[in-house]
Write a structure and sequence with these properties.
Order of helices and strands of chain A: HHHHHHHHHHHH
Distance between the termini of chain B: 60 Å
Structural class of chain B: alpha+beta
Helix content of chain A: over 70%
Largest sheet of chain B: 4 strands, mixed
Number of strands of chain B: 21
Strand order of the largest sheet of chain B: 1-10-9-8
Number of helices of chain B: 18
Radius of gyration of chain A: 24 Å
Structural class of chain A: mainly alpha
Distance between the termini of chain A: 6 Å
Shape of chain A: flat
Shape of chain B: globular
Strand content of chain A: under 5%
Strand content of chain B: 15-25%
Largest interface: A-B, 79 and 78 residues
Oligomer: heterodimer
Helix content of chain B: 25-40%
Radius of gyration of chain B: 25 Å
Chain lengths: 308, 535
């Protein structure tokens, strides 16, 4: 196992370099002068343009600039954005809220999704299963921002149960409502996945064996069937955490969470290539790590899976 | 591998520490205000975007300021500013002003700040404000073709001279009658000696001589500005402090305002202006005030579209736009049709400078078009797709099409940078939104940078010898006479329509029951000194 993990970690290096390369060229290849519109309605003075061109080496070929970027990166320097802020500082400010939101959302999603999935699997086609299917379709049909805005208006503004918006770093309490909103849509897929997998397991020979041995139903489902149904669930949850790290832009916007998604959107709008590359690269690394953890989880869940 | 471990650490860091403070109500005497995240360091001479300017405004004080009630230019740190020829200015300071770090505000704090900002290699975005001062060129050497500009040997402009601790002399290259108005702009504000030792530290914790001092904050967490006990000016704050809360989404700020978590918000989201929803939501605790801003339609200036170079066609297009209806429908009636190139509330404003050409008149528009021999092909209006320009541009297009029967369509460019590069390149073959925010409230700021042939923001490379001559004439006149000459120059623009005036927007403000006395400066920023707490 250790050898496998080491091999995977070494594979990170080319993937990491490849991503920075592609993102770097995409970010800087956007049409338009990155300095245009930097001085409000006015045109920027020559001295300002000259200084920025010099500092960001805008007059050099892209490949040369990429070389400089990687050289800095190897020393742990993610560079400075157009606005003079360190990219690492911006990421450190934005990540806590994003990570907390993602973890909270996934925890809620797993709790709701897996529970509903199991209950639905016990009586496929029964009242609960059908009701859940219908409800799930309704939830999925609503765009995320509608649910987010409604939840904010009802539970935040009108009832005052939750904070309306998230200030600065965002506590778990402040993030609860946005996390529920995110989890709501994601749990639909998760509960369907769990349901199918559990139904599948319940038809297996070892379940029948367990039943004939006289085990209690709760133990059969909770331990034996569930554990063997978790592989697709873990795969989906892994993908979800990765997605939430970068993709919660809409919910972040509605609840004023200053996370990574918003940072990337703002950077793209202001043509801040250095920040884009830094943020996207860190997310790619996060994805890689989560995928590795998912693969390790496979081996833990199913002893038949061996990596060495 | 190193990076992945640090990322794991980052994940753990995010999950465990810094649970953040709950959005508690502000302390006694403090108010919370919505703000946006400044894009760069908070250095007055390098801040041109509005988010940073919002944070700096309560912190800074300059020689002169504008009166929030009358809009006029009034003395602040300066005791008097005198000139006989608009060229040599003698400035005397009031004694007793101190910066927030305790050091006294002296003449050299102005001169050092101006020299530093004008010094080319410092690359300040407000560098060109000093180009009117004698000796500016020595600090900004021209780059030989294809090479980098040589390092200037001079670090100080010849035209600046300290007379004593509290007075200094400014010699301009040529007369500028409105120099005193220009001094309201923050590029001319004084900087304490500590700035020059470490500009970067200053950018994170700015020091001014204004009514509020910077207490703490970053662009990510928001800012706390406390009333400055040593403030020497006339705008003494009643509040103990202002907490600026950063919002990346104005709808979120609005929801906080109506839920009672926020005391003051500027620029109410457009969706809440519809049907006067904001006035109902806020039970009348609202304010709307004209903003010193002109929204216009820039014209292509190369033969990319030869037809639109004809003044008659431009006038016809202008007369075919139903400004009033567009404002009512698109902006819920917030704003007013522009009748000239200078926004109202600005010194030298004259109503109707554009004359009949800015009035909606379908008959006359058709006549003018016919006289020019009609228009063949289509008119394409370009705009930046990431801003909010689309609805208004679509409406303008419909107006043109309905009136003149010219096929009109709008074309979105991906974002503001792309849009700016494109419209500046001369490749644009159609009109595009072209707006101007006044830097200081005087007529010349709405004319010279934009329409004089060497204007710093003359994006259309517009040239008109007659206009230039009037600007040159005004420069040598006494202030009152110069305003009349500038007005004459403004009226001249109607002949060729380098830009079609559309409307002057308004600033909208909503506030909580906790505060009263909300008023705005002509630049649209609140005068926090006038705000008091309601009982």
């Amino acid at each position: 196992m250790t050898g496998y993990i080491l091999r995977r970690l070494i594979q990170f290096i080319p993937v990491f370099l490849g991503t920075t390369f592609v993102v770097f060229f995409l970010a800087w290849g956007m049409p338009g002068d990155p300095l245009a519109g930097k001085c409000g309605d006015r045109e920027c003075p020559e001295a300002f343009v000259a200084q920025a061109t010099e500092e960001f080496k805008l007059d050099r070929p892209l490949i040369v600039r990429y070389g400089y970027y990687v050289a800095d990166l190897m020393q742990g320097d993610l560079g400075k954005s157009f606005t003079g802020r360190n990219v690492s500082e911006q990421l450190l400010a934005a990540f806590p809220a994003t990570i907390r939101l993602a973890l909270l959302a996934v925890a809620i999603e797993v709790l709701i999704g897996v529970t509903i999935g199991i209950l639905a699997a016990l009586r496929p086609g029964g009242a609960f299963d059908t009701a859940n299917l219908l409800l799930g379709l309704v939830i999925i049909a609503f765009p995320g921002f509608v649910i987010a805005n409604l939840a904010q208006l009802i539970f935040g503004v009108r009832l005052g149960w939750f904070p309306v918006t998230v200030s600065d770093a965002g506590s778990y309490y402040q993030l609860l409502l946005p996390a529920v909103v995110l989890a709501l849509a994601h749990q639909v897929t998760l509960s369907r996945l769990t349901r199918t997998a559990v139904i599948d397991s319940l038809h297996s020979d070892y379940i029948r064996t367990a039943q004939t041995k006289g085990l209690r139903m709760s133990r059969i489902v909770g331990i034996h069937a569930l554990r063997n149904s978790l592989i697709p669930v873990v795969t989906y949850v892994g993908k979800d955490i990765g997605g939430l790290l970068a993709g919660a832009v809409v919910v972040e916007g509605v609840f004023n969470i200053r996370g990574i998604g918003g940072l990337i959107v703002r950077s793209i709008r202001s043509h801040d290539g250095i920040t884009i590359v830094g943020a996207v690269t860190v997310i790619v690394v996060a994805y890689l790590i989560i995928n590795l953890l998912v693969d390790i989880a496979y081996a833990v869940l199913d002893p038949r899976i061996r990596y060495d | 591998m190193n990076r992945s471990t640090s990322l794991l650490a980052l994940l753990a860091y995010g999950a465990i520490c810094g649970t953040g403070l709950p959005a508690a109500a502000a302390e006694q005497g403090w108010i919370t205000v919505s703000a946006c995240a400044p894009a760069g360091p908070l250095i007055p001479t390098n801040t041109t975007e509005s988010c940073g300017s919002d944070v700096l405004q309560p912190i800074l004080a300059g020689l002169v300021t504008t009166d929030a009630k009358t809009g006029g230019v009034v003395y602040d740190i300066a005791e008097k500013i005198e000139t006989t020829d608009n060229k040599v200015w003698t400035i005397t300071l009031n004694k007793g002003w101190t910066f927030h770090d305790g050091s006294a505000v002296k003449a050299r704090n102005f001169i050092d700040a101006w020299n530093w900002a004008a010094y080319g290699p410092n690359g300040q975005s407000n560098n060109d404000w000093f180009s009117t001062i004698e000796g500016y060129e020595d600090l900004n050497l021209k780059a030989p073709k294809g090479e980098k500009a040589p390092e200037p040997t001079a670090k100080a402009m010849k035209g600046l001279e300290v007379l004593d601790d509290f007075s200094f002399k400014v010699v301009l290259k040529s007369p500028v009658p409105t120099f005193k108005s220009q001094l309201t702009y923050k590029a001319f504000y004084p900087l304490p000696d500590s700035f020059f030792l470490d500009p970067e530290a200053f950018g994170a914790k700015p020091i001014g001589a204004g009514p509020f001092q910077f207490e703490s904050g970053t662009p990510d967490t928001g800012y706390r500005l406390a009333a400055f006990p040593g403030y020497a000016g006339s705008r003494h704050p009643q509040l103990k402090g202002i907490e600026l809360r950063i919002y990346s989404n104005e709808e979120a700020a609005y929801n906080d305002l109506i839920a009672g978590n926020l005391d003051l918000m500027r620029d109410i989201p457009a969706s809440k202006l519809v049907g006067e929803l904001w006035k109902t939501d806020l039970e009348g605790r609202v304010l709307q005030q004209p903003r010193a801003n002109l929204q216009g339609l820039g014209m292509p200036f190369t033969d990319a579209n030869a037809q639109l170079l004809k003044p008659g066609i431009r006038q016809a297009v202008s007369m075919s736009i139903d400004r009033k209806t567009i404002i009512d429908v698109i902006f819920s009636g917030i704003g007013q049709p522009a009748t000239g190139w200078v926004p109202p509330g600005v010194e030298g404003y004259q109503a109707g400078a554009c004359g009949e050409f800015c009035e909606y008149n379908p008959e006359k528009a058709k006549e003018l078009l016919a006289k020019e021999g009609g228009y063949s092909g289509e008119i394409k209006i370009y705009y930046a797709g990431d801003g909010g320009a689309k609805p208004a541009m679509d409406a303008i297009c419909n107006s043109i099409q309905n009136t003149l029967q010219i096929n009109c369509l709008t074309s979105a460019l991906s974002d503001n940078s792309t849009f700016r590069s494109f419209t500046r390149s001369g490749k644009a073959d159609g009109p595009f939104p072209s707006n101007w925010t006044m830097d200081y409230p005087s007529i010349d700021n709405a004319l010279i940078p934009l329409y004089s042939s060497n204007g710093t923001s003359n994006r259309g490379s517009y040239e008109n010898a007659e206009f230039d001559a009037l600007i040159a004439k005004a420069a040598t006149e006494a202030p009152a006479d110069s305003v009349r000459t500038y007005q004459e120059a403004e009226r001249l623009l109607a002949k060729e329509m380098p830009r079609i005036p559309l409307w002057n927007p308004m600033t909208t403000v909503g506030y909580s029951p906790k505060i009263k006395g909300v008023s705005l400066y002509s630049n649209g920023r609140p005068d926090y000194s006038a705000v008091t707490l309601a009982e």
